[in-house]
UniProtKB/TrEMBL annotation:
The keyword Signal applies. Residues 1-25 form the signal peptide. This is Right handed beta helix region. Keywords: Signal. It comes from Algoriphagus ornithinivorans. The keyword Repeat does not apply. It comes from the Bacteria. The lineage of its organism: Bacteria, Pseudomonadati, Bacteroidota, Cytophagia, Cytophagales. Residues 199-355 form the Right handed beta helix domain. It holds the Pfam family Beta_helix. Gene3D superfamilies: Single-stranded right-handed beta-helix, Pectin lyase-like.
Amino acid sequence: MNLQNRIKSILGLLFLFFAGNAALATDYYFHPKLGNDANSGLSKNQAFQSLDRVKSLNLQAGDRILLAEGQTFNGSLEIIGFKGEKNEPLVISSYSEQNNSPSKPAKIDAKGYLNGVLIENSSFIRVQNLEITAEGYGKMSPEGQMRVGVLILANQKRGVKGVTLDSLIISRVFFEEKGIQRSAEEVKSANGTQKYGWGIRVMNQSDSEMIEDIEILNSHISDLSHTGIKLTGNTDQNIRRITIKGNTVHKTGGPGIQMSGVKFVYVADNEVMYSGSNDDGRKWGRGSGLWTWSSSMVLIEKNKFMYANGPGDSAGAHIDFNCDNIVMQYNFSAYNAGGFAEILGNNYNCAYRYNISVNDGHRVKGQNGAFQEGKIFWLSGYQGGDKERKGPVNSYFYNNTIYVSEEIVAKIAIDNRSKGVLIANNIFHIPGKTELVAGDQYKPDDESNRELEDVFFKNNLFVKNGLWPENALIQSEDGIVGDAQFRVPGGLNVEDYIPQNAAVVQSGVKVPFLTGDEFGLIDGLQLSKDILGNPIMENPGIGAIQVFPQMAEKKND
């Protein structure tokens, strides 16, 4: 046998080996009413009954755990120490008793349990098409410190890789029983000190292993006492390559989405509304739509952040301290109490670009328990505790459209430790008053005079003269005064902010690197499309929407 035929023979044997292994994959069926844990579980007529039965299965790559559609399972589904294959993940899903696609998901009621679904030290798993709820502890003892819809956990010396959560419905997750009313002091703590319920948590407690390649997709998370989606790594950023896409996160008592100790994260096409909800006494009552801490290389685009609530923080999306290369682009931000753009200390090369902000930062310090002012623009050197303030360094803020109605006082805060600030090609449509305020992140920013280094503040459109506070440390150069004439001022759609006065928004400037900055931003400084997907010409224009010359000509005709 020649070499070529030998290779073909070996490849054929390998194919048969892997095909044979795939054929051995097993479906396990579960039904809470018609099942029995003494059954084989290998068919619908021989379904298991309880989720606890999963622990005794010898699961292999490609196996499926299938829960009966529309049925409620009490308890917790736990996968511990499992390793599938990249192309043959373990699948956990619903099944139809009529042999077609499930019309409604199976439901896991984890009342009194620590988690609805636990994936611990396991890899290559897909969880899809399930509903999970976990409200309080009922007649069970209130064990643990938190209750979670889905917990992905690494500890000991085993990591987690290749887990996908898709099309889940997670709601009503509370640690406490109804009737709890938290004190006003609890909401003043940094992240809450009491026991809460969370939607999806990804936690790495291992000193040596990674959590990587996680997808959270197309899921609806609502009405729980703390954060909707939370990633918790360490300062080595041991959670990496994460995608959070296509989800809706509504009425969370804390932030909608929060990440710490992560690297290489993509957050896109999510709708986050009413974070920091206080409509239940068990909820924390404070939270930005999204915020990052000690994170690197995170792209946050094409999301909606609306109606964030709380006496502190509670911006649409903000960048907390110890981050680098965080980019917010193509997002729609509206009516968030804490504000629009917020970059805290020890942050490097972060940006807000091609976003639209509508009536953000309306909160007033001292009213309704608020201990921070709301702000449309905030650069703070705060980096925690008693540390000396530092930065942020190389903050880019360009081609954003900011609309604030006349009855709201638009507030701005700029820490004098900031180094490297670019503000260019933005529309500041603020017909009312503006004020410079202290940043008040647990203690106010240092307001003593200090000239900021490396500032590029040019070519922004202001709806009136004197809009930028005269006592701000940085002042506009080459500002333009004019009304962009939005299609529907105050509207809640991106298209509402297409300028009708095209002539005043065409003369943008090419965004340069700040002095001494050799990196710029992830995906570069120059984008090819605006927030609506229109191509950006050589002249980038002003604001988040590129207006073409022919638009102005048509208007003049």
